Amino acid sequence: MIKLLLSTLAAAAALGAAAPSHAASGAELLKSQCVACHAVTKPAEASVERLLQRKGPDLYYAGSKFNRDWLTAWLQQPTVLRPGGAMFLNAVKPGEAGSADVVDAAKVTPHPKLNAADAAAAADALMALTTPDLVAKGAFKGDPVNASMASLLFNKLRGCASCHSAKPGAGGGSGPELFSAGDRLQPDYVVEYIRNPQKFDPHVWMPRLDLTDADVQKLSGYINTLKQGGAK
């Protein structure tokens, strides 16, 4: 009986040693499928040219930005987060009869789908990419949100809706949609990005608004309430 138990344990140990780890398979996925479009390590040098030419957003701080459950689900069923692609200037075309420019959907490449196992492995690898120097824990205070005032701040007073949509089909398309932001983004990241977008990339086109901390918290709290099926 003891010999049988020992042999069983040895076989299990050998199987565990032979099987690739979740993190290792995730790292391989990042290397084989992600790095062609995304920076998974911090670029050595930031430049306007790099920003204009990149095919997808930087992911070297993904673990400080995304929520893992959302990331795992999204990688299996990707939705359009940036109507104009990673760099909207490369996807716009003139509108008809002198109307405003529109996005040429043919120039926006859809994100590939992963199966459930690969999505989980890739999500684990991405969540390991954290940058404490960019996103400080506890930046979001979690104060109660006055929805009407925060919505006014977002849509009118600070002009966020000119680039972002808080509801499907409403708002600008030069920035990522925010109607799923509460599912997608960590509140601490939202706070830090609103405070200083250029800390993440000195050439990114989102303006630094120099808001008071109270307004940053209000906007971040509002954005955190924007979730699929419950957009405000």
Automatic annotation (TrEMBL):
Tell me the first and last residues of the signal peptide: 1-23
Q: Which InterPro entries does this one have?
A: Cyt_c-like_dom, Cyt_c-like_dom_sf
Can you tell which superkingdom this protein's organism belongs to? Bacteria
Instruction: Give the UniProt keywords, A-Z.
Output: Heme, Iron, Metal-binding, Signal
Tell me which residues make up the Cytochrome c domain: 21-130, 145-227
Name assigned to this protein: C-type cytochrome
